[in-house]
C-alpha cells in the first residue's frame, strides 16, 4: 500500500475518533448539569417545605390567640425586629463575643480531647481506668457543672469556658477512641511491614484512618460545646460582655418576646451554618475515600 494512502487512512481514522469523542463529551456535560440541578433541587425543596410548614403553623397559632401577642408575636413581627436589630452594631457585637467564646472553648476541647483519646486508645491500663468515666461525663447535662464552675471561677469567662470544655471533650475523645478501635488490623500490619512503628505508624496509618470517626466526634463535640455555652451565657452573665445569652436574658426580663425569638432564630442560623461546614468536611473525606455518591 502506498505511503500516502496509509497516511490518508490514518487521518480519516483520527477524525472519526475525534468526532466520536465530541459526541460522547456533550451528553456527559449535559448529564452533569442535570445531576447538579437535580441535586440542588432535591436538597432545597425539603428545607423550603419545612420552613413554610413551621412559619404557617406559627402564624396559625398566633391567629388562634392561644397566647397574647406580647407573649407570642407573629412571624412578621419577629422578622421586622430581626431586620431592624441586625442593622445595629450591638447585634453583631453580641454574636462576635459569643463566637469568640465558642471557638476558644472548642479549640481547647479539641486539643484536650484529641490527646486524651489517643492516650486512652494507646494504653490499655488508662482505658481500664478512665474509659467508662469519659462516657459517663458525656452523658452528664452540662448545666450540672455550673454551680461548681461558679464556686471555682466566680462569675467570669473562665467559668463559662470550664463548662464548655467539659461538655465537648468527652465526645471528641470518644470519637478518636472509636476510630482507632475500628482501624483494620491489616492496615497496621502493612504499616509495620513498611517500617512504621510508634509515632510514625500513628501519623501515617492510624490517625488518617480515624478521620471519619474524628469528624463525627468533632461535630458532636461542637453541639455539646454550643449548648453548654448558651446555658452558660444565660446563667453566668459577665459584666460588660453583651453576649447573645446575656442580651436574650435581658429581653426576657423586659418581656420582649420578639427580641427573644430574634435571638433564638439567630442561634438556629449559626447552628445551621456550622453544620454545613461539618457536612462539607465529611463529604470531602468521603470523596477522598471513594465513598461519595451523587444524591
TrEMBL record:
Belongs to the binding-protein-dependent transport system permease family. It comes from the Bacteria. Residues 95-278 form the ABC transmembrane type-1 domain. PROSITE patterns: ABC_TM1 (PS50928). The keyword Membrane applies. The keyword Membrane applies. Keywords: Cell membrane, Membrane, Transmembrane, Transmembrane helix, Transport. It is found in: Cell membrane. This is ABC transporter permease. One of its GO terms (cellular component) is plasma membrane. InterPro entries: MetI-like (IPR000515), MetI-like_sf (IPR035906).
Amino acid at each position: 500500500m502506498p505511503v500516502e494512502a496509509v497516511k490518508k487512512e490514518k487521518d480519516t481514522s483520527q477524525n472519526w475518533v475525534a468526532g466520536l469523542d465530541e459526541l460522547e463529551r456533550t451528553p456527559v456535560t449535559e448529564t452533569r448539569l442535570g445531576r447538579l440541578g437535580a441535586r440542588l433541587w432535591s436538597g432545597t425543596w425539603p428545607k423550603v417545605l419545612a420552613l413554610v410548614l413551621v412559619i404557617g403553623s406559627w402564624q396559625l397559632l398566633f391567629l388562634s390567640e392561644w397566647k397574647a401577642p406580647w407573649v407570642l408575636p407573629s412571624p412578621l413581627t419577629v422578622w421586622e425586629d430581626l431586620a431592624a436589630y441586625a442593622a445595629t452594631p450591638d447585634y453583631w457585637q453580641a454574636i462576635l463575643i459569643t463566637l469568640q467564646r465558642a471557638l476558644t472553648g472548642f479549640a481547647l476541647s479539641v486539643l484536650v480531647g484529641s490527646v486524651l483519646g489517643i492516650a486512652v486508645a494507646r494504653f490499655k491500663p488508662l482505658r481500664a481506668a478512665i474509659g467508662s468515666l469519659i462516657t459517663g461525663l458525656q452523658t452528664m447535662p452540662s448545666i450540672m457543672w455550673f454551680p461548681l464552675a461558679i464556686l471555682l471561677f466566680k462569675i467570669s469567662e473562665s467559668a463559662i469556658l470550664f463548662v464548655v470544655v467539659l461538655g465537648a471533650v468527652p465526645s471528641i475523645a470518644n470519637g478518636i477512641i472509636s476510630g482507632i478501635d475500628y482501624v483494620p488490623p491489616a492496615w497496621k500490619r502493612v504499616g509495620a511491614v513498611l517500617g512504621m512503628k510508634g509515632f510514625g505508624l500513628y501519623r501515617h496509618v492510624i490517625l488518617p484512618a480515624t478521620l471519619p470517626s474524628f469528624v463525627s466526634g468533632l461535630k458532636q463535640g461542637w453541639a455539646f460545646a454550643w449548648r453548654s455555652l448558651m446555658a452558660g451565657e444565660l446563667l453566668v452573665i459577665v459584666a460588660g460582655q453583651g453576649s447573645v445569652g446575656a442580651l436574650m436574658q435581658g429581653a426576657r426580663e423586659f418581656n420582649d418576646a420578639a427580641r427573644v425569638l430574634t435571638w433564638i432564630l439567630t442561634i438556629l442560623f449559626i447552628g445551621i451554618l456550622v453544620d454545613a461546614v461539618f457536612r462539607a468536611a465529611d463529604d470531602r473525606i468521603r470523596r477522598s475515600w471513594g465513598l461519595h455518591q451523587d444524591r
